[in-house]
């Protein structure tokens, strides 16, 4: 490969297929990148920007460029190019998610424990949602606060209500309460945190990246896909793991090490998330598309008056 013509922004894998996106997200959600210092990430960013400018440092290999792009994609926002906070990065989803989810699944019996761990989880989710929003649609501190309080209240009301309602239900049903609460909260947290996109629309472009306007329908489609991805991300660990733990706890050796049940669940959740984080992110393309015919009438008519039928689809960043 001639590095003089290296296009660092060209997808390494085919983003139109699930397998191509899966390889891409396995690459950028690699939790090892979360351990790297900011100085190393800044070096990667500098190399990516040099490559974009057509001035690749002498002696640089293609693999070094690919690795720099991996670090750049894992740590810098696709809209702004700013370094994202560590906890909000998708590369932190496995270590952060496994700890919180593991303890939510372990401490589900008492109301105080349910309240505490649901609050911790929604605080984590709010930061992740804010970090991975479409940054072209700014959100005010007041809107962030309302979104956080609404989502946290939804999760707590769902979890505490179901926890009390399932007191006489089979034990396994009670173990599934955390997942129902997480799913309900995601349906509130993400749209609320990204409400500006729904109210004012997000920027849509043609295939070459030329801006065509703002669309609220595109925003709704993108946010709906993110909600589905997040619920899917949590589902296997929070639905299957309770079944596994209920069966394991019948064995005498497990009854002797009850103090290790929490750490065991944390590690098992981590095993699920290592695969589910990239798999869930891969369900839909990050560069989402929408037919011009499905846009709001004003934008649709504006595009057709300027470009006729030459533009049939618009494109936008749905966020993660």
UniProtKB/TrEMBL annotation:
Residue ranges of the TM segments: 145-165, 222-245, 266-285
Full protein name: Sidoreflexin
Subcellular location as annotated: Mitochondrion membrane
Family the entry assigns: Belongs to the sideroflexin family.
Main location: mitochondrion
GO MF terms held by the record: monoatomic ion transmembrane transporter activity
Record flagged with keyword Mitochondrion: yes
Keyword Transport among record annotations: yes
Keywords: Amino-acid transport, Membrane, Mitochondrion, Transmembrane, Transmembrane helix, Transport
Membrane disposition: Multi-pass membrane protein
Any single Gene Ontology cellular-component annotation: mitochondrial inner membrane
Record-linked InterPro entries: Mtc
Any one GO BP annotation for this protein: serine import into mitochondrion
Taxonomic superkingdom: Eukaryota
């Amino acid at each position: 490969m001639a590095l003089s013509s290296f296009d660092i922004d060209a997808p390494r894998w085919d983003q139109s297929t699930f397998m191509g996106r899966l390889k891409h997200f396995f690459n950028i959600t690699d939790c090892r990148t979360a351990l790297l210092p900011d100085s190393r990430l800044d070096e990667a960013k500098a190399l990516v920007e040099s490559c974009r400018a057509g001035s690749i440092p002498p002696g640089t290999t293609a693999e070094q460029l690919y690795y720099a792009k991996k670090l750049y994609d894992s740590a810098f926002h696709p809209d702004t190019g700013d370094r994202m906070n560590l906890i909000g990065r998708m590369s932190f989803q496995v270590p952060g998610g496994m700890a919180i989810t593991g303890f939510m699944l372990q401490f589900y019996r008492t109301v105080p424990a349910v309240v505490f761990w649901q609050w911790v989880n929604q605080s984590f989710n709010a930061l992740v949602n804010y970090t991975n929003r479409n940054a072209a649609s700014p959100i005010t501190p007041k809107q962030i606060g309302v979104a956080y309080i609404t989502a946290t209240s939804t999760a707590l009301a769902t979890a505490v209500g179901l926890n009390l309602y399932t007191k006489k239900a089979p034990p396994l049903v009670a173990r599934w309460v955390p997942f129902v609460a997480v799913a309900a909260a995601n349906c509130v947290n993400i749209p609320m945190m990204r409400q500006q996109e729904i109210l004012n629309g997000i920027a849509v472009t043609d295939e070459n990246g030329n801006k065509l306007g703002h669309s609220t329908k595109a925003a709704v489609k993108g946010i709906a896909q993110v909600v589905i991805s997040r619920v899917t991300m949590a589902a296997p660990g929070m639905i299957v793991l309770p079944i596994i733990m209920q069966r394991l706890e019948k064995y005498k050796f497990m009854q002797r090490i009850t103090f290790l049940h929490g750490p065991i669940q944390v590690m098992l959740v981590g095993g699920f998330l290592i695969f589910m984080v990239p798999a869930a992110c891969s369900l839909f393309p990050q560069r989402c598309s929408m037919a011009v015919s499905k846009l709001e009438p004003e934008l649709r008519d504006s595009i057709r008056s300027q470009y006729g039928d030459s533009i049939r689809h618009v494109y936008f960043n749905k966020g993660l």
